[in-house]
Amino acid sequence: MKINKSFENKNVLVLGLAKSGTSAALLLHKLGANVVVNDANAKQDENLLKQLKQEDITTILGSHPDDILSKHKIELIVKNPGIPYTNPVLVTALANKIEIISEPELAYQISDSNLIGVTGSNGKTTVTTLINLMINEGGKKAYVAGNIGVPATTVAQEAEATDTIVMELSSFMLAGIRDLHPHIAVVNNIFSNHLDWHKTRANYIHDKMRITENQTNDDYLIMNWDREEWQKIAKKSNAQVVPFSRQGLSEDGAYEKDSQLFFKNEYIMDAKDIAIPGEQNVENALAAIAAAKLSGTNNASIVQVLKTFSGVKHRIQFVDKIDGRVFYNDSKATDIEATEVALSAFDQPIILLAGGLDRGDDYSRLVPMLKKNVKAVVLNGETADNFKEAAEKAGIETIIKVDKVKNGVSTAFELSEPGDVVLLSPAAASWDQYPNFEIRGDEFIEAVKNINK
């Protein structure tokens, strides 16, 4: 951790609590700032509140007071990434030219570690995890942080100058950076996510690509090369572009050719030996290989990780095999593209559990994949009726609606036969029924455990 005196005696508002907000507030207090924490939700984790109270940090819960900025003479805001800039406090702050940053930006301000940043619409948690495992397997110390569930400000204080922080960065986090500068940036893919927040695809792409805006020719941008749009976007970066391609469109980086994985013409391993299933995980592996090789990791360590890594929880996660049926939890599939990826990972007949928050998505886009090998769908949530229409267009005859995921598991088991896959891949966010996709996935896992009990 490097010394940064720019926060001394500064009046800082941390907007949004949770783990990252608490970590940011404690760090700012440690740096000598006058910290105020504000969250509209009055119900908070008691352990987090206790930590703030022990340091006498002012905490305001239950609303966003209109006068919070003027009353506390706020000079800087560190905001929770999920809070939109339409929030009245942020609107007022912007009008008064008060700087607003994200928690990863704050972490960067005090970090002296090597930084690898990872973003993308899908697969970024898997890529982040793989890179971290590969570097550690190779004998160097690496940490994960950011959108993966570990506050970046916590890790930045622990990691040493010789260590690497592999930081998963959402578009929301990247919207609030200023100086954040990864030596290696990874963009796994860019689809059309979170348009309810970003409003347009152009805005979404802009925020995603902020990951490379502070990079120079001494840095690297690892970019998915399998779409022409992504190739064009990458060429706007000042960094050295290192492509990865499952279609073998470039041999200047990591690529698949004849079912084998290479990095700059150097053979790494056979694609079939990757432990986690699906074509998307070949892409994830290629992105991670590129980052690991650029970090100086040896091939043996890379191969060992890819052969043994069984996947990230809630991301096409193997749960159990019961009476010949195989259960997978893909609760992180909060958009149509992620569910397309999950469906493409299996050749067996699928009983699909889907549905969730209605954000106006067109589920007819899923019809081609539903036709492939989905034999029945079990639906819940706000999107159930829209998803039902898509399933009917795909010719699926067995369509059942349930009230919760846990009830969908027992229904899916009754519909299934030995050799089938029971897959939770909602193609929608969880917020209509669950606080987050993790709780939704945990409910699925628990329901699977209770089958036959």
Automatic annotation (TrEMBL):
Cell membrane among the record's keywords?
Answer: no
Pfam families reported in the protein's UniProt record: Mur_ligase_C, Mur_ligase_M, MurD-like_N
Every copy of the Mur ligase C-terminal domain together lies at 314-427
Q: Which organism is it from?
A: Pediococcus argentinicus
Q: Which reaction does it catalyse?
A: UDP-N-acetyl-alpha-D-muramoyl-L-alanine + D-glutamate + ATP = UDP-N-acetyl-alpha-D-muramoyl-L-alanyl-D-glutamate + ADP + phosphate + H(+)
Q: Which GO terms describe its biological process?
A: cell division; cell wall organization; peptidoglycan biosynthetic process; regulation of cell shape
Q: Which UniProt keywords apply?
A: ATP-binding, Cell cycle, Cell division, Cell shape, Cell wall biogenesis/degradation, Cytoplasm, Ligase, Nucleotide-binding, Peptidoglycan synthesis
Q: Where is the Mur ligase central domain?
A: 118-292
A single GO cellular-component term from the record reads: cytoplasm
This molecule's function is given as:
Cell wall formation. Catalyzes the addition of glutamate to the nucleotide precursor UDP-N-acetylmuramoyl-L-alanine (UMA).
Enzyme Commission numbers on file: 6.3.2.9
Q: Which InterPro entries match?
A: Mur-like_cat_sf, Mur_ligase_C, Mur_ligase_C_dom_sf, Mur_ligase_cen, MurD
Q: What class of enzyme is it?
A: ligase
Specify the domain of life of the species encoding this protein.
Answer: Bacteria
The compartments listed are: Cytoplasm
Stored PANTHER family = UDP-N-ACETYLMURAMOYLALANINE--D-GLUTAMATE LIGASE
Gene3D superfamilies reported in the protein's UniProt record: Mur ligase, C-terminal domain (3.90.190.20), Mur-like, catalytic domain (3.40.1190.10), NAD(P)-binding Rossmann-like Domain (3.40.50.720)
- Family to which the UniProt record says this protein belongs: Belongs to the MurCDEF family.
Tell me a Gene Ontology molecular-function term this record carries.
UDP-N-acetylmuramoylalanine-D-glutamate ligase activity
Which NCBIfam families did the record assign? murD
Tell me if Membrane is a UniProt keyword of this record. Answer: no
Would you tell me the protein name for this molecule? UDP-N-acetylmuramoylalanine--D-glutamate ligase
| Pathway membership, UniProt | Cell wall biogenesis; peptidoglycan biosynthesis
Q: Where does ATP bind?
A: 120-126
